[in-house]
Design goal:
The protein is α+β, with helices and mostly antiparallel strands. The chain has one helix and two strands, in the order αββ. Strands 1-2 form a two-stranded antiparallel sheet.
């Protein structure tokens, strides 16, 4: 079965997004509080795609 034309585009887009956005990315400087507690700012990233055909 042949690959759908949009499949290659989606694969490339998803790989590019994965390279740019990593769930282990720290988005700020660590903050040290009284009592030697370290707060490390992180983020949660979600995304989605949709496609349709007439």
């Amino acid at each position: 079965m042949s690959e759908h034309p949009i499949e290659g585009l989606m694969r490339t887009a998803m790989n590019s997004i994965q390279d740019m956005v990593d769930v282990n990315t720290i988005i700020g400087e660590p903050i040290e509080t009284a009592g030697d507690i370290m707060i490390i700012p992180i983020s949660k990233v979600c995304f989605g795609f949709a496609a349709g055909r007439k």
